[in-house]
Every structure is written in C-alpha cells, then in structure tokens.
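Hi R.,

Here's the chain you asked about this morning:
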Amino acid sequence: MKILLIGGSGNIGRAIVDELAGRHEIITAGRHHGDIQMDIENEQSIIEMYRRLPRLDAVAVATGGRNGHVGPLAEMSAERYRVGLDSKLMGQVNVVLRGIEKLNDGGSFTLVGGAWQPQAIAPLLSNVYMANAALEGFVNAAAVELPRGLRINLVSPLLLAESEAEYGPLFRGVPLVEARQAARAYSLSMEGAQTGQTYRLGRFD
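And here is the predicted structure, written out as tokens:
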C-alpha cells in the first residue's frame, strides 16, 4: 500500500514506521519534519498537501497538533476550548474530508484520539476529553457515509509509556501503553477490514 502518515516523527509515528515500512510505502508529513511539510491546523495546508501527493491507499494521523488547553474548568473559556477543537478535532476531520477523493477504492483513514469518557479520571482535561469524544462520534458517523468502500477507525491510547515523564502526573496509576502497541492498532486499522471502530489502548478491564 501507499500510506500517508501525518506525524511520523513522534513516538507513535516512529513506531508506525517501524511496524509498516517493511511491507508498505510510507510518505510522512508534518509541520517541521517529513517528506512533505503541512500544518494540520490549517485547512488550506491540508488541501495543498493532498494536491502534491499521488493516489493513496491509506491515510494515518499520529498527531493531534495541539491536543487541547489543560486547565481547571473554572478557568476555561470558549477560546481555550477552541485549542483542542480547532486542532485535534477539526484538523483530523479536515484530513478526512479533503482526502476522500485522494484515496483509492477500499482505502482507509486512521485517526488518533486519547483519554476517553467515561474514564475521566483526572482533572484539568475537559478540553482533551471533549475533543476525543467528538472524534469518536465523527468516526462512527463517517463510517456509515464514506463512499467506494472507504473505511475509517480511531486509535485511542490512554497514556504512552514513552510520554509518562511529560504527562504521567495527569494520569497517576493508569496502565501504560507502549508506542509499538499503538502501532499494531494502526496496522489492524489499515491492513484489516474493520470500519467505524475505536481501538482503546490502556483499559483497566
């Protein structure tokens, strides 16, 4: 397959490359790194990226841009909520909307989520939970309407082991997920047959 990987330089992105590069052609894209530079928060940048690319068999997103403003609910505002909604949510939605015509029949989109409801186990993250829940709703609905046998799934790791030093204080005691485990979920999404699925990694049960 010819795969576009947005966010190939991060922890999950590098693990996806390690998992898939031996059997597929991977084109990486990112704001500062990759074969193509693009800004997931800028719809015109997404349009321009697709214009420069050949036909694709899969598009995988391994970055949410700015994940969302972290702060107590009492300090949140519409502007702060837009950080997660405009970036992590709408950035990925635009990757799908603008990429439909670029995918070959039977192709797939794989998006990235994260901490999910009802596991709202930590304070300060209402923006993050809201964006992730909206992504799951979008994937569920888009799977019903995508044409030409196109598929879409969501990979939602709770806390990467590789990110524990940075985000661990927000998720005390939660099970850790290694990036290579997340990469295998991307493999399942792209190389399997499912659609409309959310692969939650790091569950307690």
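One quick note: The chain has six helices and seven strands.

Cheers,
M.
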